[in-house]
Structures are given as C-alpha cells and as structure tokens.
C-alpha cells in the first residue's frame, strides 16, 4: 500500500542531505526530505499523514498510520533546547488525526533569530531510501498539504 506524505508546512523543499544536522542529513533516523519554512512570526505545522500521534513534543511529533508506517516531523534544528518556548501544541499524544490537521504552531523568525535553523525534516521511520518517491522537487516552493513524497 502506498502512503502519500503531505508537506506539514509551507516553504521551500530541501534535500535531507542539506539539513544542518548530521542526524537528519545522514538519514540516521530514516529517509525523507525537509521543508525550509517561509519566514513568518507564526507558521502552522500540520499532520503529513492520517494516523495516531505516537509521540508529541513542542519541537517534534511522530504519527503512526493505520498500516503501521511512522512519519516523524521535526520542527527546526536544535529546537529541543528551547524547552517548548515559542511553540503551541494543538493536539495531544495518542490523538487520532487526519492528514492536514493542525498539530503545532511556531515562529520561524524567532527560531532563526535565536541562532537556530527553522528547517523541518519529514522522515519515513524504518523505511529504506528506495521506498520513497519525491513528488516535490528540491528547491520548489510548496504549500502545507501538498504532496511531498510517496512511500511504498
């Protein structure tokens, strides 16, 4: 069964290798892609797939689909150091969510202003790189809710 993974945030598509953190750029957690969010004081981060929120932190969340595929969304790089400051949660762990549902809001401008990257990696957990097919080209502008990649 093919899973369509949507962009959780509006911005510019980046190759995972270009994410300024080796954990992501070297695909240690899994293959995927990233979105560099548009500069703003308030960005909405939405569920890229339907499923159950397995883990939820202000800076990251993982959703497991009905057929057991896990998708991780990490909001910014080194944002765990912020202790949730500047992030607002709009869901709870164990919630069942629909694709496109609002999960987190944050300020890319505040993250960047604090010397961090606002880049949002979207990863397919426990997947092989060849199981993913990009629907959006690197360098392309994408809106939240548009198809980012498919996972077979």
UniProtKB/TrEMBL annotation:
Domain named PTS EIIA type-1: residues: 21-126
Domain of life: Bacteria
Keyword Kinase found: yes
The keyword Glycoprotein appears for this protein: no
Database matches in InterPro entries: Dup_hybrid_motif (IPR011055), PTS_EIIA_1_perm (IPR001127), PTS_EIIA_component (IPR050890)
Location of this chain's protein in the cell: Cytoplasm
Entry keywords, A to Z: Kinase, Phosphotransferase system, Sugar transport, Transferase, Transport
NCBIfam families linked to this entry: PTBA
Protein name per its UniProtKB record: PTS glucose transporter subunit IIA
Organism of origin: Georgenia halophila
Organism placement in taxonomy: Bacteria, Bacillati, Actinomycetota, Actinomycetes, Micrococcales
């Amino acid at each position: 069964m093919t899973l369509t993974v949507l962009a959780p945030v509006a911005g510019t598509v980046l190759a995972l290798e270009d994410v300024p953190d080796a954990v992501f750029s070297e695909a240690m957690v899994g293959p995927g892609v990233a979105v560099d969010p548009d500069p703003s004081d308030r960005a909405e981060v939405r569920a890229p797939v339907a499923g159950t929120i397995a883990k939820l932190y202000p800076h990251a969340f993982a959703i497991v689909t009905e057929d057991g595929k896990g998708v991780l969304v990490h909001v910014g790089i080194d944002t765990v150091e912020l202790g949730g400051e500047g992030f607002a949660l709009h869901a709870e762990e164990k919630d069942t969510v629909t694709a496109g549902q609002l999960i987190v809001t944050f300020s890319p401008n505040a993250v960047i202003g604090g010397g961090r990257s606002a880049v949002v990696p979207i990863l397919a957990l426990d997947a092989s790189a060849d199981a993913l097919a990009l629907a959006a080209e690197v360098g392309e502008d994408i809106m939240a809710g548009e198809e980012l990649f498919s996972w077979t």
